[in-house]
């Protein structure tokens, strides 16, 4: 069982930056690929980024490529999402998720989810 707790969300102006963190419980953190997804009201959950267990492989969604960066610190059981050049359309609840060792982009591939942290970008 893995428990995930996100933090770092908030209200920011367009063009600003935020860094989200997700701390995982358990001793096998490095065996999980970790993903970030987001969900805006009335929309489906959207893939944002994923990182392999070792951190050597990352993928980012097309809508955030070049602006967001996923990273992890296995010694701290933590995955991060650095978000720069934020836009109003980035407004959503951001969830982290833990899955198998493969870097999947579909929500159904992930076994464990955090409660999410709200990110609001004002224009």
Gist of the model:
The protein is an all-beta fold and 123 residues long. It is built from no helices and eleven strands.
Provide the fold topology:
Blueprint: E1 4-7, E2 10-13, E3 18-24, E4 33-39, E5 46-51, E6 58-60, E7 68-73, E8 78-83, E9 92-99, E10 110-113, E11 117-122
Parallel strand pairs: 2-11
Antiparallel strand pairs: 1-3, 3-8, 4-5, 4-9, 5-6, 7-8, 9-10, 9-11
Overall description:
- The relative contact order is 0.31.
- The chain contains no helices and eleven strands.
- It is globular.
- A hairpin with a 4-residue loop joins strand 7 (68-73) and strand 8.
- The chain has 123 residues and is mostly beta strands.
- The strands form two sheets. Strands 2, 4, 5, 6, 9, 10 and 11 form a seven-stranded mixed sheet that branches.
């Amino acid at each position: 069982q893995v428990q995930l707790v996100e933090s770092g969300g908030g209200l920011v102006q367009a063009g600003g930056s935020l860094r989200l963190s997700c701390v995982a419980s358990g001793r096998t953190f490095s065996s999980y690929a970790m993903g970030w997804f987001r969900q805006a009201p009335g929309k489906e959950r959207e893939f944002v980024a994923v990182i392999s267990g070792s951190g050597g492989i990352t993928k980012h969604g097309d809508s955030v490529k070049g602006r967001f960066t996923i990273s992890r610190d296995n010694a701290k059981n933590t995955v991060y999402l650095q978000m720069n050049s934020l836009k109003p359309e980035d407004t959503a609840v951001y969830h982290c998720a833990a899955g198998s060792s493969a870097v999947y982009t579909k929500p159904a591939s992930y076994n464990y989810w955090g409660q999410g942290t709200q990110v609001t970008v004002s224009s």
